[in-house]
Amino acid sequence: MKRKTAKEILTESFQELAAQKSIDKITIQEIVDNCGYSPATFYRNFKDKYDLIAWEHTGAVAEIVDRVGEGDYLWTQTLYDGARMYYENKDYLVNLLKHTSGHDYFMRYMVRINCAALEKYILSVNGHRELTHEEMMCVKIYCLGLVGLACEWIMDRIDTTVEEIAKIYEQSIPEPLKKYLL
Prior knowledge:
Tetracycline Repressor, domain 2
């Protein structure tokens, strides 16, 4: 039986609170009170609530990307599962994007996390050959576009389905990366 870590419990506590109120109004004290931990435990695991949010997002992205290559699980399935994850967590993400002073920080962090995940995947596919400068630039621009589009979609500025947005993600893969991703 796998026991939950303090990080996982603190994250669940934060998400419970985020379902009830604006993220910018949630305090560390409320997070720890909600799960029975102390502020010291929180600060042993996270530097602030934005660090907690970033840790949670990193884990969610890694969980999806790490499945690529298992059986018939391809990059296109990763795009769909990522879009579905965003859709299923839409209320939480809208709260995050609308009600945090760390909005820009979170956006940049999402781009960094997605770039790292994509680079890791490409390295596993290409035999761990270092990506060229052009390939790295394509990874960055692709991830900037994915995150930007996802945020627009989450905020209801784009009306589309999970399937349609995943298809757009796939069609937007830069040419130099297609040999690794398709």
